Amino acid sequence: MLSAEVAVLGIAIGVVFSLVCYLVSNLSPGGMVTPGWLGLALVTDPRKLWIIAGVTVATYLGARLLQRLVILYGKRLFAAVLLLGVFLQLTVFLFLSHRQPMPFPVRTLGFVVPGLIAYQCVRQPVASTLLATAAVTMLSYVVLLTGVLLNLLPPA
């Protein structure tokens, strides 16, 4: 488990890399805070990524279905996709918490991340968004892991 200060630093590192990615490629890597949070997830417990990936896919497909039924664009699209992601992530969390102890602690930002990624996938080409998200996440992960391994960052 990493300290709160390291978590904030990890998200800040992700924001910097996300901004550079956006400025260079004009692609949002799943939102500004997403790569930093995913990098932290990789450092603390890589199993989280499977759940996030599944919920992101379900959120994206649900958003596309909603767009066929309701006129969604702009702020309404953002709110609908984000709320759908939170609902699906919370559903998975509640289902898993009744079946077995959670493999990782609950973090509030983790409920929002799948919706942020799915929203960017709705707005931009899916493959480009996923590639940008993966690249920026890996950069954030490498910087965080290097800091942890060199004992530059406190572990708890």
UniProtKB/TrEMBL annotation:
Give the record's GO biological process terms: capsule polysaccharide biosynthetic process
Q: What keywords were assigned to this record?
A: Membrane, Transmembrane, Transmembrane helix
Q: Which residues cross the membrane?
A: 7-28, 48-66, 78-98, 129-153
Record-level GO cellular component terms: membrane
Protein's UniProt keywords contain Transmembrane helix: yes
Statement: the UniProt record of this protein carries the keyword Transit peptide? no
According to UniProt, the name of this protein is: Poly-gamma-glutamate biosynthesis protein PgsC/CapC
